[in-house]
Amino acid sequence: MAGADDFPPITGARLIVAGLVLALTNFMVVLDTTIANVSVPHIAGSLGISSSQGTWIITSYAVAEAICVPLTGWLAGRFGAVRTFTWGVIGFGAFSILCGLSVSLPMLVVCRIGQGLCGGPLMPLTQTLLLRIFPKEQHGQAMGLWAMTTVVAPILGPILGGTISDSWSWHWIFFINIPVAIVCTIGAGRLLRQVETKVQAMGIDLIGLMLLVLWIGALQIMLDIGREHDWFADATIVWLAIVAAIGCAVFVAWELTDRRPVVDLRVFRHRGFTVAVLALAFTYGTFFASAVLIPQWLQATMGYTATNAGYVTAFSGVGAVIMAPVVARLVNRVDPRGLVCFGIAWLGFTALLRVHWTSGSDFWTLAIPQMLQGIGMPFFFIPVTTIALGAVAPGETASAAGVMSFLRTMAGAIGTAISTTDFANQTTVARSEIVARMHTDATATALQNNGFSLEQVRLAVERTVNQESAALAINHVFLVSAIIFALSAMLIWAARRPRRPVEAGAAH
C-alpha cells in the first residue's frame, strides 16, 4: 500500500510524532503476547482455576491474532489502512478494559480473543503506515524503529507482568494498555488522516473464513482441554479432533480452488517458502512453548515471585538486542540458510543446557541459558524471512507474509498446549517413579527427633517430591525441544538460496 496514492508529505516534528505513535502501537500489541506469561499463576489463583487452564489466556489471544492477520490486506483495502488501524487500536483498548474487569475464565478468554482479533492487523499495519509516511531514503530507519519495539516488547513483557502482578494486581497488566490506546488513537486521528489509502469494494471469501475459524477453534480447544479429559478416552475430544481434521481438509481444498481465498495457500508451491515456513513453525512453536512453561515452573515449584520469574525469562532478549544489528549486516553477505541453521542449532544447544536444571538451581544458572538463547534468536528470525519471501514471486510477497504470520502464531499456540500437557504428564510419571523408590523412614525419624510433627514431615516429603518430579519433567521437555531444534536446523538446507532480495518490512 505504501506509495499507492499521492498525498501531502508529513514532515518535521509531525513525522517524528506519527512514527512514534505507530511504533508505540506495535509495542503495545507485541507486549501483550508475553506480559501474561508470568501472571498466569496469579490469574489462576484469583479465578480459581488450574495453571494448565490458565494457559488459555495466552493461547486464546495467539489464535485470535492468527485468524485475523491474513485478513489485514482485505480490511485495509475495504475500509482504508488508517481507518482499520484506528478502529483496531480502539477495539484493543476496549477489550483490554474488559480483560482487566473479568471475573471468570470464560469472560477473560472471550475478551482475550477480542484483543487478538483487534490486535492482529495492527502489527502489519504499523509497518505499512511507517513505510507510507517516511520517505524512501528513510525506510531503513523506520523499520529499525519498528524492529526495536518488536524486540524490546517481549523483553519487558515478563518483567512488567511480574512486577505489576506482585506489586498491584494482575488486572493492571491489561489496564496499562488504556492510556497507550488513547494516545495512539488521538495521534492516528490527527496525524495520519492524510495518508489514508484508497477504499474499494472488495468481496471476501466468507466460506473460507468460517472454515478457518471452525477448524482452528476446534483444534485449539482440543489441545487445551485434552489433558483434563484424558484425551481420546473422552467423546468430546474425539469429536473436536474429527471437526478439526475434516474442517482443515475442506478448508485447504476450498482455498486452493477459490479465486480470492482468505488465505492464499498457493504460495506453498514454492519449495523454498514451504521449507522455511516448516522450519519456522517447528522452531517458533518450541521456542514460544518454553517462554510460557518456564515462568510457570519457577513460580509453581521453585518459589519464585512473578517479578523474579520475569527477570529470568527476560534475559533472552538481552542477547537478541545485541546480535540483531550484526545479523542484519550478515544477511546480504552470507548464505541465509547457514545463518538459520546456526541460529536453530544454537537454540538447541541452549535447550541442552537447561536439561541439567535441578530444583536447587540458582538464579544465574537459570538466567544464563536464557541470555545465551537470545544470541541465536536473530540468526533464526531474520534470515528465515529472507529465505521464505525470497522464494515467492514479487506479487505474492504480501500473501506469503500473511501465511507466515498465521502459521507462526498458530505454531506458538499449539506448541504451548502440547508442551504444558507433556510437562504435566511427565511430572506425574516422575512422581510415581520417585515414590516407588522412596525410603523415608530414616528421614522421618530424624525430622521427628528435631521437633517436627508427623504431619509436618509428610508435608516436607511431599514438597520435595513435587519439586524433584517437576524438575525431571522440565528436563524431559527441554531434551525433546533440543531434538526438534536439531531436526529443524537440518531441514532448512532443503530450501534453495533466495533468488531475490526482500524489501524491509515485507514480513508481518
From TrEMBL:
<feature type="transmembrane region" description="Helical">
    <location>
        <begin position="375"/>
        <end position="393"/>
    </location>
</feature>
<keyword id="KW-1133">Transmembrane helix</keyword>
<dbReference type="InterPro" id="IPR011701">
    <property type="entry name" value="MFS"/>
</dbReference>
<feature type="transmembrane region" description="Helical">
    <location>
        <begin position="473"/>
        <end position="494"/>
    </location>
</feature>
<keyword id="KW-0812">Transmembrane</keyword>
<keyword id="KW-0472">Membrane</keyword>
<feature type="transmembrane region" description="Helical">
    <location>
        <begin position="170"/>
        <end position="192"/>
    </location>
</feature>
<comment type="similarity">
    <text>Belongs to the major facilitator superfamily. EmrB family.</text>
</comment>
<feature type="transmembrane region" description="Helical">
    <location>
        <begin position="84"/>
        <end position="107"/>
    </location>
</feature>
<feature type="transmembrane region" description="Helical">
    <location>
        <begin position="310"/>
        <end position="331"/>
    </location>
</feature>
<dbReference type="InterPro" id="IPR020846">
    <property type="entry name" value="MFS_dom"/>
</dbReference>
<feature type="transmembrane region" description="Helical">
    <location>
        <begin position="235"/>
        <end position="254"/>
    </location>
</feature>
<feature type="transmembrane region" description="Helical">
    <location>
        <begin position="275"/>
        <end position="298"/>
    </location>
</feature>
<keyword id="KW-0813">Transport</keyword>
<keyword id="KW-1003">Cell membrane</keyword>
<dbReference type="InterPro" id="IPR036259">
    <property type="entry name" value="MFS_trans_sf"/>
</dbReference>
<feature type="transmembrane region" description="Helical">
    <location>
        <begin position="56"/>
        <end position="77"/>
    </location>
</feature>
<feature type="transmembrane region" description="Helical">
    <location>
        <begin position="338"/>
        <end position="355"/>
    </location>
</feature>
<dbReference type="Pfam" id="PF07690">
    <property type="entry name" value="MFS_1"/>
</dbReference>
<feature type="domain" description="Major facilitator superfamily (MFS) profile">
    <location>
        <begin position="18"/>
        <end position="500"/>
    </location>
</feature>
<dbReference type="GO" id="GO:0022857">
    <property type="term" value="F:transmembrane transporter activity"/>
</dbReference>
<feature type="transmembrane region" description="Helical">
    <location>
        <begin position="12"/>
        <end position="36"/>
    </location>
</feature>
<feature type="transmembrane region" description="Helical">
    <location>
        <begin position="204"/>
        <end position="223"/>
    </location>
</feature>
<dbReference type="InterPro" id="IPR004638">
    <property type="entry name" value="EmrB-like"/>
</dbReference>
<feature type="transmembrane region" description="Helical">
    <location>
        <begin position="113"/>
        <end position="131"/>
    </location>
</feature>
<dbReference type="GO" id="GO:0005886">
    <property type="term" value="C:plasma membrane"/>
</dbReference>
<feature type="transmembrane region" description="Helical">
    <location>
        <begin position="143"/>
        <end position="164"/>
    </location>
</feature>
<protein>
    <submittedName>
        <fullName>MFS transporter</fullName>
    </submittedName>
</protein>
